[in-house]
Amino acid sequence: MLPDLLSFSRLSWFHFNGELKMDDEIAQLVAEQDHSSDEPCVWTSCSHPEIRFPLPTSVLQSQSIKDRKQTGFRRTVETCLSRIQKAMFHHQWQTAAELMTNYFQILEDNTTRKQESASKVIWRMGTAILQHHPNSCIEDANSFAGKMKSIGVKHYLKVCLEHAIHLMCNGKMDEAYRELSLAETWRYGEKSATQHKVLKLIQGYRALLDYYTWVKKNSALQEKADDAVDSGTAQEMHNYFRQASIGLHDVVEHPGVWDPFILSYVNLLDFYDGFEEALKVLNDYAYNSKFPPNPNAHVYLYEFLKKHHTSPKKLLKVLRILYQLVPSHELMLEFNSLLLQSEKMKHHKEALGVLFCLLDFPTWKENYRTWKCLIKQMKKAIAEGHSDWIKEQWELRQDWWPAFHFSKFRAHRDFEENESYACRKAVIAGILTGKGCKYFITIYRLGYKVQNAKMKKMKQYVKDHSLLQLSEC
Fold it and tell me: Do 380 and 418 contact (CB within 8 A), yes or no?
């Protein structure tokens, strides 16, 4: 077990506009504390005795002249915070945990602003420490979450959500569901905009757990014969579907990035023959201008349409937008294939451009399938009299592709790893840059020793069809 009051809750509750980074928040709160250090000290008239922490004397003596104006209590607290941060940055989790037990004394500061910021710092730092500490356990998480709820009322809902997510990550689904259900009924004062957002997330995660239960029970039912399913079981399944669908619908109608919620909601609707409704949800998620740009939204829409055997024309429309957002996406090979199925020459030209664009990215640099598709489509374009398509793409890349793809060093390595791949790539290099290309010359010499007939044929093709040869003609 860790020192008292330290527990873990995975640092992963999501905001409507992204994740909250612990380090940035602590830095901001520390800056706020520094800014407020010039305020009149309230401890001069306080009945509390000055509190000393068991920190090394050398540390306390290193305070600046500005710190001397503060009380011993605040001076020591800020020193403790600095030591905790330093320990965390150096991954000294046991030291950070021990110092945190001292830092809890900051809550005795009777300045409301400092108490509020301190509870937030404790929550975030304690969470991070417990996440990384090798000896943390689920009991620590429960204990820490309980204490954070009592000392940070304004952060109650966030703490509950974070704790529930930690429970889910550890397979404690029933405990997580209870935590979310209790949090959903909690109220404190007038509901703020932030509380409203967090409540929506809580409702969404509770609905996600309803969906999880529905999936488990539905999988069990699929293994039974149809006549073995009684009306009571069917009604129970429908209740889980209704609870999950209502909760998920309430979440995804608000602008934001809701990937796991969208997928669950669409699966529910699709299972109960709600194709049109599911399609509307996915279309809104992908195309509604109120939602932030999200490539995954277009991926989900494409996969849903493909699953239901939608026409290639509609699939192309979805993938073309994804291509504009993420030209290096793995679905671009499918986009290329769909374009080639069309009878329109403009689609074939576009397909060639998609392959060139893929090879602009390091992740595709050594993808054998992409180079194989490119040489095949380049030869087809040349045979049909469309060398200008290739030239158009090469003019955009001639300044940097030779060093990026066609170096002598890479030629040796490619030939050693895969001769067939290296030869195809050499033909491409030759067509684009001419037979004087270092890559082409290296592969030709290496291959000539074992396959001289094949190399001669390759050299002749490059000589006849290189872009340099065509431009001279």
Answer: no
